[in-house]
Fold:
Amino acid sequence: MSVTVRVPAKVNVQLAVGAARPDGFHDLANVFLAVGLYDEVTVTPADELRVTCTGPDADQVPLDRTNLAARAAEALAERYGRTPAVHIHIAKDIPVAGGMAGGSADGAGALVACDALWGTGASREELLDICAELGSDVPFSLVGGAALGTGRGEKLRPLEVDGTFHWVFAMADRGLSTPAVFREFDRLGEGVDIPAPVASQELLDALAKGDPDALAATVSNDLEPAALSLFPGLADTLAAGRAAGALAALVSGSGPTTAFLAREADSAAKVAETLRASGTCRTVRTAAGPAPGATVVPGA
Structure:
């Protein structure tokens, strides 16, 4: 017997970042939107815990106990007095080290899959609690849709979204470390009075109305200057997407993936085609959101 869970990528349509806290984290106002790029996580009973991975950039995915999928299985097993003896296979389609929460998605997927495989019957609140222990983005990977994350991003409030938003994602030719981007954010902010992060009401209204033009006028990412400081070439990708007709262009999360909002699917395809030919990125994908969170695939 095995259980497969499909889990989405995310884009941050707003990422407001506060000053570093004493614990080293930062308070956030993080508006997540799940998009239709998915990893599939399959768990099967085994003699011991092991992780395998296939798909684009699979060679960059850690297969030891540092993998969030492995840590999720261990965390759930510990709570229920089990041995985490499962084979976790990740069919990877979310970009690796791209600021789209691929690792977090795998953690949420493994957690839901192990819960179903073992019949632990954990409540949603308990699963979200484990997710928050695993990482700031993991709870959203579980719930999907759209949500405002506060605290360090793990405290979620679901958001209403009317309609569909069309996105183009340009993958860079190398990754960016999230801790390194936050360190650069802190360096750039030395001596600056950084305000407490607050979600933009105009942005939340744009999501609720399904208005891509209004959303384009309000998207923002406080980590973008830090990502550009560490990876200046991303500016060329952002410029190419804007020139191709994207309504908005921004670094996704801590990067280095760049995200471009389009008015509809046809214009997203045109932006993607232009970006592919621009020579400023490695690969290009299109996806729409919101997308559902971690979901068991029937009969998989």
Summary: The mean pLDDT is 95.
